[in-house]
From TrEMBL:
EC numbers: 6.1.1.1
One of the GO biological process terms: tyrosyl-tRNA aminoacylation
Top EC category: ligase
Entry similarity comment: Belongs to the class-I aminoacyl-tRNA synthetase family. TyrS type 2 subfamily.
Catalytic activity as recorded in UniProt: tRNA(Tyr) + L-tyrosine + ATP = L-tyrosyl-tRNA(Tyr) + AMP + diphosphate + H(+)
GO terms of molecular function: ATP binding; RNA binding; tyrosine-tRNA ligase activity
Superkingdom as given in the UniProt entry: Bacteria
Keyword Ligase: yes
Annotated keywords: Aminoacyl-tRNA synthetase, ATP-binding, Cytoplasm, Ligase, Nucleotide-binding, Protein biosynthesis, RNA-binding
Protein name: Tyrosine--tRNA ligase
Motif ('KMSKS' region): 241-245
Gene name in the database record: tyrS
């Protein structure tokens, strides 16, 4: 049962504000009374707290779902605390089993190094890089050696490890659990010992691992860290968590026009959750905007403001303005200012073949299906004849609302 979040009553203004910021959008803050005491100590002594977030570079880039915890880090960073962006180059070689029903294959050193190169650069679009401590856990994990690993393993029991939900389900289901998988939460927990963290952040699926860090810090005679879990962001569909494999994501390196349009595609209901978890506006500002929409203001206005804020964060104010104008042009049936140019030969060329060769459809059969659905335009005219052949010339070809190409056919 989750503990009830207490309010900031009877606290100093600074500590109360810090607590409110900590709790914004959070799933759990444990133990909350300890976190309040840490905040009070920091205010009294002027010594900032050490706040840790670890990410394993399991993919070459990140999407905005990953930035939910990064946003929280930035909010706490702006309060003056030290944030530590930890790249799990050692733990990636083990493979995190969290939420898995099978053993996660470990990454090679080459994959880890390639992915790590982009992680911090992309995280720096949210964090203030001048105030961020970046660390790699191989720094203290590699020197442990066999003896140190065995000594670490002695500080946690198999019974407690099997309390973890995914391990329990796999064991009861007769699915294999490799011994090395027990090492992952131990090594993540040891990161907290090495960094002397006061607070560790993670998604709700990381709660067990974060609690292991608390336990190990006590075993090593340290004051245990508090843990703050953030919910997993729903993707564009508003149902499943944001994931590349589900295709419902927005990459932080995505083009501004695409990023802007994707934010506008979410539901009016999901928009407010995204505001809470992704926006840097205060909750008072968000609630005021929500009241305006409830009072009759078009919810699209609020969604456009969110789309511009997110696009601006990962690109620039100018790019966000241009993306908005591009979206307006498309919604009016206009052509964006910048579209790819493709040179093709073979005129006269069948329309379905042209779509395939121009990269606007994966195959001629899919091209024909798009034509049947009324989703293909040539120079703004809807194409309904699948037998159409285009002679040599220049054409603006559009598929759906977002795909355009200027085809130079010879």
């Amino acid at each position: 049962m989750k503990p009830e979040f207490v309010t900031s009553q009877n606290l100093s203004e600074g500590v109360g504000r810090a607590l409110d910021i900590s709790l914004r959008g959070a799933d759990e803050l444990l133990p909350q009374d300890e976190w309040v005491r840490k905040l009070q100590r920091a205010e009294t002594t002027g010594v900032p707290l050490r706040i840790k977030l670890g990410l394993d570079p399991t993919a070459p880039d990140i999407h905005i779902g990953h930035t939910v915890v990064l946003n929280k880090m930035r909010q706490l960073q702006d309060l003056g605390h030290t944030v530590i962006f930890l790249i799990g180059d050692f733990t990636s070689t083990i493979g995190d089993p969290s939420g898995r029903n099978s053993t996660r294959p470990p990454l090679t050193r080459e994959q880890i190094e390639a992915n790590a190169q982009t992680y911090y650069r992309q995280a720096s679009l949210v964090l203030d890089p001048s105030k961020t401590e970046i660390r790699y856990n191989s720094e203290w994990s590699d020197p442990l050696g066999a003896r140190g690993m065995i000594q670490l393993a002695a500080k946690y029991t198999v019974a407690r490890m099997m309390e973890r939900d995914d391990f329990t389900k796999r064991f009861k289901g007769g699915q294999s659990i490799s011994v090395h998988e027990f090492l992952y939460p131990l090594m993540q927990g040891y990161d907290s010992v090495a960094l002397k963290s006061d607070l560790e952040l993670g998604g709700t699926d990381q709660k067990f691992n974060l609690l292991v860090g608390r336990h190990l810090q006590q075993e090593y005679g340290q004051e245990p860290q508090c843990i703050l879990t953030m919910p997993l962001l729903e993707g564009l569909d508003g149902i499943e968590k944001m994931s590349k494999s589900k295709g419902n994501y927005i990459g932080v390196a995505e083009a501004p026009n695409s990023m802007f349009a994707k934010v506008l595609s979410i539901s009016d209901t999901l928009m407010w959750r995204w505001y809470t978890l992704l926006s840097f506006r205060t909750m008072a500002e968000i609630e005021a905007l929500r009241a305006e929409v409830a009072g009759g203001r078009n919810p699209k206005d609020a969604k456009v403001a969110l789309a511009k804020e997110i696009t601006m964060r990962f690109h620039s104010a100018a790019a966000a303005e241009a993306a908005e104008q591009d979206f307006v042009n498309r919604s009016k049936g206009g052509v964006p200012d910048e579209i790819p140019e493709v040179a093709l030969t073979g005129a006269p060329l069948g329309i379905a073949q042209l779509l395939k060769q121009a990269g606007l459809a994966p195959s001629t059969s899919e091209g024909n299906r798009l034509i049947d659905g009324g989703g293909v335009r040539v120079d703004s005219a809807v194409i309904s004849d699948k037998g159409l052949k285009l002679s040599a010339g220049s054409y603006v070809v559009q598929v759906g609302k977002r795909k355009f190409a200027r085809v130079l056919l010879g």
